[in-house]
Amino acid sequence: MTAFNSRLREVLDELETARKRLLNSVDSLSQDDLDFSPSTDQWSIGEILHHLQLTEESTVRVLQKLADRAEKSGLGPDLAAGSILQSLDRFNIESAADKIISPPSVTP
């Protein structure tokens, strides 16, 4: 496995772990629970899960194209940087205050 692929594997393994935790957290919900929306301008849990699925599929397609292009052009990870899993932590996405309207391609 190339260094480039090992970095991708690290990220994919982390995403798989997070996906399993998310699905386990909603596993006991009924269909009514999943379909419940607190208001007309808010998504239900089911819609949020569908949005996450669509977003993940779209992101994977884009990242695959970019990774293929990078590898073909000889680019690779900075091996001196260590793990890349915490590289996005500085963006603090958990505290995003502004509501973002989802594009139609990832709207449930």
Structural class: mainly alpha
Instruction: Give the helix level as a range of percent.
Output: 40-55%
What is the H/E order?
HHH
Give the tally of β-strands.
0
Low-confidence stretches: none
Q: Count of DSSP helices?
A: 3
| Overall pLDDT level | 84
What coarse outline follows from CA principal-axis ratios?
elongated
Task: Note down, in words, how this protein is organized.
The model has no long low-confidence stretch (mean pLDDT about 85). This protein is an all-alpha fold and about 110 residues long. The N and C termini lie far apart (about 35 Å). The protein contains three helices and no strands. The radius of gyration is 17 Å and the shape is elongated. Helix content is about 55%, strand content about 0%.
In short:
This protein has 108 residues and is mainly alpha-helical.
Note the main attributes of this structure.
108 residues; mainly alpha; 3 helices; elongated
What's the layout of helices and strands?
Blueprint: H1 3-26, H2 31-35, H3 45-72
